[in-house]
């Protein structure tokens, strides 16, 4: 097979390299280590030298920039300079966040997957839908895009009505631990909705996954609005932490206004909530059929009462196992191409 022959060709080269390292002093051997790990490092970062990769990264930057610009713009209170400034319209702000997200997913979903949220990107890594190297570039692009969007809004808004520029802050009446729990739970709801509505294994959903996930989640957000005793609509989550659910969305205005009070809450809480949601959905509630079948084989027995999977793992003396590397590479390429699951935040 092509895989066995290529592996056989690499073994002498690897043996000669190790022999050369052993024959050298310790200082020279340390200098050889980067050369020995070069192939492994290049394999980990494969794909970042392609145009499609940088097109996806730039798409995440632009999508996050536009999202932050539009969504934070809805928090600007243009009546703040009046004697009796009106209260913020929380329903308008929520709908602006949801519709801007849905629009960005429709524009950039086929380019980068439309994550626009480091918590969603981390969840995709946990669910084996995105490589770690690509996720790191995505997160950097998302944060830079958020800073750019908040900066454009800051420069284009008069200082008299600029206010806090949508900076997320923890309510002084709750503890930091409570704020962390709130961000974890609402981001868990968000990411679980993303995975459920964008699951390629489901056949009961029709239409665009991006619009479905964004609108379904924002519908749930609108249902959190309840009238108070005076008939005013109020959100039960925004007063706690500002309901960020997106580390990049909080990072952008924090950099522009240089406000870092309890900022770690808006990173650790959403990312942890997203990872938990991805793990529960992908490995407990709706596992991959192939992965489920593989684990089921571990506990299956044949007619003699032996475990089939355990028996197949025993390597007999003199036996040679040839792997169809070409078939595996084709399958891996298919997984990479479809791995950028369409998201919505």
UniProtKB/TrEMBL annotation:
| Protein name as annotated | Aquaporin-4
What species is this protein from? Aldrovandia affinis
Q: Oligomeric state and partners?
A: Homotetramer. The tetramers can form oligomeric arrays in membranes. The size of the oligomers differs between tissues and is smaller in skeletal muscle than in brain. Interaction between AQP4 oligomeric arrays in close-by cells can contribute to cell-cell adhesion. Part of a complex containing MLC1, TRPV4, HEPACAM and ATP1B1.
Cross-referenced SUPFAM superfamilies: Aquaporin-like
How does the entry describe its membrane topology? Multi-pass membrane protein
TM regions (residue ranges) = 61-81, 87-108, 135-156, 176-198
Q: Which family does it belong to?
A: Belongs to the MIP/aquaporin (TC 1.A.8) family.
Asked whether the UniProt record includes Repeat among its keywords, one would answer yes
Catalyzed reactions: H2O(in) = H2O(out)
Any one GO cellular component localisation term in the record: sarcolemma
Instruction: Tell me, in one coarse class, where this protein mainly resides.
Output: membrane
